[in-house]
Amino acid sequence: MNLRALTLLSLASLALALPELGGHDFRAPGPFDSRSPCPGLNALANHGYLPRDGKNIDYEMINQAAQDAYNFESGFYVDAVNMVFLFNISTTTRPNETFHLFDLARHDTIEADGSLTRNDIYFGDDVHFDATVWAPVARDLGLDHRDRPADRFVTVETAASATRNRYALAKHVNPQFNASMLQQQFEYGTTALYLLTLWDDDQNAAPKAWVKALMGEDRIPFQEGFTRPKVVKTSERIQNMTVAVRAAAGAGS
Fold this sequence. Notes:
Blueprint: H1 3-17, H2 39-46, H3 59-70, H4 78-86, H5 131-141, E1 153-154, H6 156-173, H7 181-197, E2 206-207, H8 208-217, H9 235-248
């Protein structure tokens, strides 16, 4: 068997081994698909846990997808989904029952200034990934420095510092930065959310490769070794994680 055949065989074996197959392979969104400012929700659509077009989503879809992919407890996203209907921001034909992912980009209703991966609405686009915004955050997280085992994980302290720096930069460059109550509530909660989503309980940290995939590509890092966690991620855990991140950032609880 020649080298080319061996290479093709190896690639085929790898593809069959990846847990993302079986209907949950990654597919980048098309030009008419709906996406949100949230990498975690976008990844659910990109992998088919939610409708791949990101449209006409209801609470049960979100609830089941979050359980199936990330092992969040049932009801984890109920408050976030209820906000869509409470503020009447759905643009579907059933606005009291369904929404499109893009509806979550409503500024200062659900979306707030200071995103780690999206630019502020002041600059015109708060939905699509912005490499210029993400680059300094990724640098602060040390995502491209994973040579030693000890350097392969994002800790609470590292994540808190990177988020604090991102807010400072956003406030400096955005003359209309809105430090609203919503922004203050989301401030470190979104950091806590991505950490908990990718948390490795054995390492008490989040693998850098997983963070890079989810936050930088809206992709669940199956290729990098992520599997659905055995431990259920509860609302109590996200609250505790938020408190820990805020404390590490010097923002109090």
